[in-house]
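PROTEIN DESIGN WORKSHEET
SECTION A - STRUCTURE
LENGTH: 236
TOKENS:
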């Protein structure tokens, strides 16, 4: 019973924390988020993406169209132009007052933004003279075979994660700008995962257990990304 009580208390505290989000953030596209939680030391400007926590009282406001919009559950990722650390939640009337006091309605979004960039295709094989063995060209994002296998695989997976992070950030920005649809972004993610899985299958020895596990895991990621539109790392 003691453990059940502790678990119940934890749920209550988490629920209270979610409902008490009260920071307010101006996004780099000119919209404003209210009653959210901005992480301490968040970077403002177009240099970095920030994960903003969302609670049940969170909402968005567009000063240009004077309209309110809903936010997805849990968190959103945006670039922040300015923000206020607060402890009091606000409604529609207070939201308008904050825009006026902070002069957020006069904010002009920067013209530059990161558009969604498709992963580069693997270089095509050059034709070889007749009689010579046809070898699969090695893409630039494959760690050389001269590196010991365990270290090579670790570096390869780290490279894959960096590729996924870059594409996830570009996709988020592009969808926020209305450049691409969620379906198009999902397609980009699935194709990148399939390319990475193909690299593991073509350039790494399939007789090694660690390689087999990596290939199997990447196959599962392809299926999950097709269903959810997200990389596994975006759920961390």
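SECTION B - SEQUENCE
RESIDUE ASSIGNMENT:
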């Amino acid at each position: 019973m003691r453990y059940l009580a502790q678990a119940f208390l934890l749920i209550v505290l988490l629920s209270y924390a979610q409902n008490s989000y009260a920071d307010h953030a101006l996004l780099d596209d000119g919209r404003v988020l209210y009653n959210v939680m901005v992480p301490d030391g968040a970077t403002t400007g177009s240099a970095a993406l920030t994960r903003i926590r969302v609670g049940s009282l969170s909402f968005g406001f567009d000063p240009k169209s004077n309209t309110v919009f809903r936010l997805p559950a849990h968190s959103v990722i945006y670039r922040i132009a300015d923000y206020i650390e607060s402890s009091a939640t606000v409604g529609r009337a207070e939201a308008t007052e904050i825009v006026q006091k902070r002069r957020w309605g006069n904010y002009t979004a920067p013209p530059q933004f990161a558009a969604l960039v498709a992963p580069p295709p693997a270089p095509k094989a050059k034709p070889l003279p007749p009689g010579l063995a046809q070898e699969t060209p090695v893409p630039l994002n494959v760690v050389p075979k001269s590196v010991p296998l365990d270290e090579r695989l670790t570096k390869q997976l780290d490279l894959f994660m960096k590729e996924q992070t870059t594409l996830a950030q570009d996709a988020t920005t592009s969808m926020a700008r209305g450049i691409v649809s969620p379906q198009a972004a999902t397609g980009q993610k699935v194709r990148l995962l399939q390319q990475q899985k193909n690299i593991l299958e073509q350039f790494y020895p399939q007789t090694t257990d660690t390689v087999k596990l990596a290939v199997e895991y990447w196959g599962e990621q392809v299926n999950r990304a097709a269903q959810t539109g997200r990389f596994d790392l975006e759920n961390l």
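SECTION C - NOTES
The CA atoms of residues 32 and 97 lie 12 Å apart.
The chain has a mean pLDDT of 78.
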